[in-house]
Target: Vanomycin resistance protein VanB
Amino acid sequence: MNQQPDANDAPTVQFPAPRPPIWTPPPTPAPVGPPPTTPGFIPAQAGPPIERTPARPRRRLFLIGGITAAVVGAIGGAGAYAYAGDVPRGTTVLGVEIGGKSRSEAVAALHAGLAGQIGTLGAPVPLRLGEQTAEVVPADVGLGVDVEATVTAAMEARPDPVSLLLGARTVDPVVTLDERKLHDLLGQALGKDARAMKPPSITFAGTTPKPNYPQPGRGLDAARSAEAVRAGWLGGAPVDVPIVEIHPATTKEDVDKLIAEFARPAVSAPVTVTTERGDVTVPPAAIAKSLRLVADKAGKIEPTLDAKKLRAALTGPLAAVETEAKDARVAIVGGKPKVTEGTEGRQVDTSALATDLLAVLPASAAAERTVAGRLVTAKPATTAADIAKLGIKERVSTFTTRFTGGLSAPRSQNIVQAAKEVDGALVKPGKVFSLNGHTGERGYQQGYQDAPVILDGKLVPGVGGGTSQFTTTLFNAAYYAGLEDVEHKPHSYYFDRYPAVIESTIFWPDLDMKFRNNTPYGVVIDTSWTANSITVSMYSTKVWDSVTTEYSPRRNITSPKVIKLAKGPTCIATNGIPGFTQDAFRVFKKAGKVTEREKFTWTYAAEPRFTCG
Model:
């Protein structure tokens, strides 16, 4: 038998500190019993055992171990090299190398690198919004790279050691974007393809709740639009902005439930408000007028009571328990303005009452529909100190018109009634005075009487006739004070008791007379009357040396027609008045010079000559 070489004679890889192989395969167990026989197979004759040469796994394993150690050593060395500096080496952002640098160096390098790409980064971004296409300029929506945040992300997202051996890595920039500006611009681009969401609401017809069911809209979601633009900005292709269906937070079923459980019970019976000066009844009609069941921007309905509307609906009942605060006033005494201090009042805190009422409105039992009202001090809206700051020291204009019939005539009484209501009115700087807004409706309950008014081109009896003369007088006082004309309408026909063109009619609620106090001083309106005249004066501080009127000649003169009307109480005969067109120029002077000219033009129709019968 030939002798086999010993396994230890095989060459090995030497290590400074030899160690056993990392892994050794387990030995194969020896077979037990005779070898298996297979049909057609004749086993060989038994003979002396054959010596087998042992396998040489140790050399291979030592080689593997050596390579692993070399890799680990290389990785360790590469890691030490790659992590030199705050930002790992080989890191780039949009092609700008920032690796191996300190934070400040990386920030400076990225700023400089992006500055060279401003043409690309600032170029308009093409967008697709359904069927519409658009472009957005990055600067218009704050679209850009947050350099500081990008460097921070590059520092924090450190790669694993193995990937360091594979080469450089790219870090995505942190993108800035003003979502609101983008949403507004995209909304304009979407145009007709957008469909507004119809929010739900519940309104009242009298005291009957009526549902307005929600309907979904079609448009843009600000967050999803911004996400798409951020992701696709630098991709080179048009960015697809998703069009979404916008659903209100409240459904049709929610609206029906709210009517059944809240709106209908809310107006089913009155609510009693107890106060230290007596009880106040809030009728269902007042609840319906002040109850708001309107959805917010998300389409959700949160019931509220409007405190101002509640107070307006309870003006009569509240007057029984409240004391009205009185503002400081300016009275004209001996031709000079004199300030009278205001007084405090006591009133129900309707803001707190509105909140408390909401809690009991779903209740049906009378005992449960009771709340406590709280009386609080009501301060004057204007104090004497406030008026002292307004510079009201002298008369700046005055105007008088005359009437016939004496003070006992219904028309004269209407003029005086309007004058009483306006007397002492204070118009603060920048504020607009509205005659309709100041007096409210001028009806029988307010002390007005029947007198001739112009309706459909002819004189007929009507409550408040004559207030147009007061309106004209007030308009001219404001006109010659140099105040800004906001709204007025001359009569259809010319009456010689008024100045042509610069006069005004009024009719509740459609025709109004308004002017703005366009001076830095307060303006107080003073009214006075005699048996045959009405005068309105303005007190303030003079802004102009003078305000005058220059007229053009009358033109386009027309003659009146004769119209016969049936006899009766509604027929008022007239003599007829020619029609014409004329210009009036308001001339402002300061320091002896004309500084402004304002043109007013009006065309009067020829008033027919009406005969009765």
